[in-house]
Amino acid sequence: MKTSFRLFLMMVLQLAIWGAWAPKIFPYMGMLGFAPWQQSLVGSAWGVAALVGIFFSNQFADRNFSAERFLAASHLIGGLALVGTAFSTTFWPFFLCYLVFSLVYVPTLSVTNSIAFANLRDPAGEFGAVRMGGTVGWVLVSWPFVFLLGAQATVEQTRWIFLVAAILSFAFAAYSLTLPHTPPRKEEAGVDKLAWRRAFKLLGAPFVLVLFIVTFIDSVIHNGYFVMADAFLTNRVGIAGNLSMVVLSLGQVAEILTMFFLGRVLARLGWKITMIIGVLGHAARFAVFAFFADSIPVIVAVQLLHGICYAFFFATVYIFVDAVFPKDVRSSAQGLFNLLILGVGNVAASFLFPELISRLTTDGTVDYTSLFLVPTGMALVATLLLAVFFRPPAKGPVAESEADQAAPAAASPAQP
After folding, report:
1. How many domains does the chain have?
2. 3-state DSSP: the chain helix, strand, coil percent, rounded to 5?
């Protein structure tokens, strides 16, 4: 089997595990009767794991273990933790099992990237197609739930989100041992061990600070979408519980298509305009959620904006860092922004939106119009910050051909 295809399957399994439970975890916790603060604490576990994972995988794991064995062990433990999560109906056992899963899963996001880069002959040219396997996996995993869940899914049915993820995790643990051997990375001579500190100091540059603030705001909005969307589709719009994940997966289909055009868009419009369009995509989507909830076709169609929201902002941020930041701190800067997107923004969204939902719920009915105007307003503030204060040192990528190569390759391990 061709190496690139084996790595593609690796990415399919990696992101399918995440995609199996992410859209429905917050509605499921509501079904279990977890209070908003308990849901927030569960959501923050992912952010804590992101912080621990970035340093653990970069500073310890990839220097002491072969990458494929690290994947196998992590996904074996993760699968067991997911089974425990599935059958835990009280808060603390649920939280502890989910925390264990998060701590072992999050580091594998960067490890799979490392395996791919280490074993591709032309990483710049091939990684984009390999990484796209993750988006394909996220889309494909939504389909089994058409049969596993009912239109009004019960707790017993919905726990399958974790059981499916566990099955995939066990399968990935076994598959990991068949991946190309990727030995521990040796300490490189001349590596700047203070690169993280220097990356933080770059925030002193106004355009970097503005981008950092906007990335935080947009990551809160992006992660908040996954907190709110499934319950909105099933409880307000009226989409059957066994179809909501398929509807949500349309956004990932759109993402695949959008990524193919991102390089050309960047070359034509430049950094600022492309990012503004990405953030405005969030504002438009939530505004539609707020005012057109009675139209199922409109709500389904607006999911396609996810491709613009993700590619035009988040993927563009990674391309921008790679193109503009000093080479010796580029990797640390990527990690810094990824921590913001995967960790800090996730934690903030996990605390903000469950609390808002609780405050805006009367007699069991959520005021979704008021709820969705909050992220709409946040997106408009972020757009204003970009438009007025973001002044990058270059208009856009150097050449269209370079941008086309960079667009898919710079896709982050954040949520597709």
Report:
1. 2
2. 80, 0, 20
Answer whether residue 402 is part of any domain: yes
Confidence band of 8 (pLDDT split at 50, 70, 90): very high
Domain that includes residue 390, residue range: 194-416
Q: What is d(CA 12, CA 91) in angstroms, rounded to the nearest whole number? A: 31
CA distances in angstroms from 383 to 214, 315, 342, 388, 389, listed in the order given: 8, 17, 21, 9, 10
Q: Which of 408, 362, 350 has the alpha carbon at shortest distance from 22?
A: 350
Q: What is the CATH number of the domain that holds 111?
A: 1.20.1250.20
Could you tell me the pTM of the whole model? 0.82
Q: Rounded CA gap, 160 and 86, in Å? A: 7
Each residue of 46-60: pLDDT tens digit? 888 877 766 665 556
Q: Using alpha carbons only, what angle is made at residue 231 by residues 218 and 81, rounded to the nearest 5 degrees? A: 85
- Please tell me whether residue 361 adopts helix, strand or coil conformation: strand
Q: Is 237 found in the same domain as 369? A: yes
Do 316 and 235 sit in the same domain of this protein? Answer: yes
Q: What does each C-alpha distance from 134 to 92, 109, 271, 416 come to in angstroms?
A: 31, 10, 25, 8
Query: Is residue 365 within a helix (H) or strand (E), and if so which, with residue range?
Result: strand 365-366
Tell whether 57 and 129 lie within a shared domain. yes
- What mean pLDDT is predicted for residues 133-156? 90
Q: Which amino acid is at 92?
A: W
